[in-house]
Amino acid sequence: MLPLSQQELINIANEFGTPLYVYHAEHITAQYKRLTDAFTETDTKFFYACKALTNIQVLKHIKNIGCSVDCSSINEVRLALLAGFEPTNILYTSNGIDFSEIEKAQSLGVHINIDSLSNLEKFGKKFGHSYPVGIRLRPNIMGGGNLKVSTGHDKSKFGIPVDQLDKILALVSTHNLYIQNLHIHTGSDIKDVDTFIKGIEVLFDIIPSFHELDSIDLGGGFKVPYKEGDSETDIALLAKKVKEAFDDHPNPNGRHLQVWFEPGKFLVSAAGYLITSVNVIKRNLGNNFCRYQQWLQSPDTPHVLRSLP
Ligand SMILES: Cc1ncc(COP(=O)(O)O)c(C=O)c1O
Fold first, then answer.
1. Which ligand 1 atom lies nearest to the CA of residue 223?
2. Residue 20: which H helix or E strand, with range?
3. Domain 26-268 has CATH 3.20.20.10
């Protein structure tokens, strides 16, 4: 982590007033560089899962450092376009939404991952082979720091269960769908890199059924430390294991596959500071009360993207 010093934060607070959100641009850049430096031997593309933080200045910064963006709602897609991302660098991974949102995403020209058989069917009927699309699969893998952030297991609502592959293939064939990407996301706070490798193995089993794939998408979920001494995902080890997995499993269709990731928290979670001021301190026997300014985000709360010299 690249921390801002207390004095730097006080200086910024003096300049802009409090309460104030400050985001450390260099930290975000450094985290992105950790990823790109680790994955030099695999053709990889990173889409920042912007649900982690949709501040427009942060989005612009992420675009400027060369990272792409993953959106989970159509308004996030609009925000990403507003921030200047090219549609080809925007991914829309939907969950349980009305088909009209997918139609909007299609009209904006972004990549789309569809996560239900019913929407895949509607997409096939309307667009056939004319628009490439991705499928979000549920790999039946337990991943993530706890059950609440685990999204790939066999009771999860996210994605089309891999065991329904025959139904997916029937739709692909009936509507001549152009399946460009297979996506999984097993959860957040994934420390064990083998969770990602298990996901790759699930995908390797079904890749041969898709003849027009350009990419596989392993989602996000890299674990970040929340406090001193906490562990995090070993990104270098993950990169090594991903490369080994691909070396062991050349695509039987002969097509080159790019690997996509959707890191959210990894890029931004340690980059934000909330600076507020103490209104009143009441000293008591036993316990003291310290009352801060309200810090609920309001339109009046300034946001500063600070790039320090
Ligand atoms: C589809 C998808 N991709 C990426 C992410 C980002 O996860 P994280 O912030 O843990 O990296 C999420 C988080 O919920 C997600 O649902």
1. 10
2. strand 20-24
3. yes
